[in-house]
Amino acid sequence: MATSGSIQSPFSPVRRVITGHTPTGKSTVVADTIQPPTFWSPQSISPIYDLCRTGESPAVIDSEIVQGKWVDEIAENGEHVSSDGSVFRVFEFSPGTVSPVHRTVSLDYGIVAKGSMVLELDDGERITLNEGDTIVQRGTMHAWRNESTEWARMYFVVLGAKPIEINGETLEQEWRK
């Protein structure tokens, strides 16, 4: 259970298992760890777990063979989006949590694993996603809200995308307070 404040998430720690290959080409486990959390801010009690990052697509998946060791791209670069690759992460939202309003230049696949979350778009539209629901987020300005009294957990795969251009204006990454 992770926390940066006095309230702890009720969810089990996030275990990350990474497979790879031996020098002879056999399958092997290169990492089996409990992933440490990060937080939106020092005051936040809602953890984020970065699980995997690739810097390009197609992904490089043979570092343990080429470099003699597995390279953990999460440890090397923790940016929110990999413009030419992918990021896999877990967000936990405590009751009452509201994410910053933001847009990333990415295609995000999300799954609500536990609880319910409200997606709020910048036109005011609000959609409630419940346990098992999915979202395909296509570079839109939005915020996430946990309006319930229970914790929620969402999994996301974030893929770098081409910026959207509307009437000659490019919609870039943006974070509002």
Automatic annotation (TrEMBL):
- Specify one Pfam family: Cupin_2
Which CDD domains does the record associate with it?
Answer: cupin_BLL6423-like (cd02231)
- Domain Cupin type-2: start-end pairs: 90-157
Q: What is this protein called?
A: Cupin type-2 domain-containing protein
